Please model this.
Amino acid sequence: GAVTGRAAGESIRTLVFAEAILLYLLLLPLVVANLDIDRRQTMLLLGGALALAVVKAVLGLAEVLGHYGQPIEGTSTLTYYEPAANWLVMCALLAMLGLLLARIRPPRWALLGTPLLFACLLLSYRRSFWVAAVLGILLVMLLGSSSTARRTLLPVGLLAAAAIWTLGATNFQNSGSPIVRRAASLVPSKLETNVEDRYRLDERANVLGAIGQHPITGIGLSVPWSADFRPLSIEHPGGREYVHFAALWWWLKLGILGLAAYIAMLCGAATLAWQVWRRSPEPTARAFGLASLCAFVGLVAIETTASFTGVDQRFTVIFGVQVGLLALLARLPLSPALGA
Model:
């Protein structure tokens, strides 16, 4: 990607800064996985991550109550638009559900913070994170519940599908609730009427056209794509260096090897999460592994509408630390007695 970008005329300084975010994905998992800490300290670290998520939820809700947050849908304000906080809150919410399904009593402060986590994610108005959260919750219920509860998943899924269909068939134009209006905008028939959603469709057509012209090498890092295949409904500053589809971003910027690296990275992270969930003797670690596994599946859905991994700095840092923690937990002895 750097070589191709340099050949296209980009400066070395620009390419170094473009590579910096990707380096987090290489270095942070290695650093965290090799921390010299014992089992008790690792569990304290997981508890601290959960506490951080609750604190972020409280701060986000304070933004909404005080009308300090970013405005959306008229006069309403949201908690967090950026992906890092929403990812942290969603993973914590899934971990709490995993603990409860395993009949493990979390600390009282964590139980009291669970509704705050849910409210914070709901009031972020990030539709992609809503979809990922619903998908993650269903997967946690499927994988973490008893066989009796698993048999109820199909009717629950059918009811959810019926609710979504009903939602799409209802006219919400006069609804006063921004949550309802954001949910209604998920209906495919309404995407073409939203200028921002229509822009993403135009962007994708141009990106796919550029990939078709450079399928092996891509266009290179820091090289903007061109609107040669479809006119854009709106222009965004710096928008032509971004792609609202992570796999296409990696392919466009880093070539076919970039796409392979992105897929391998997600598969490797999911494999680590599976190992921690199935093998760890610690209930907290198992819940973290299950939550991470389901969250990674949700991330695949999220990143069909936006690019975060390797693109957004704060999200990439959190993702790299999370993968490193999973690797650290996977390396711990299977029996607490062996680690004594």
Notes: The mean pLDDT is 83. Strands lie at 71-72, 76-77.
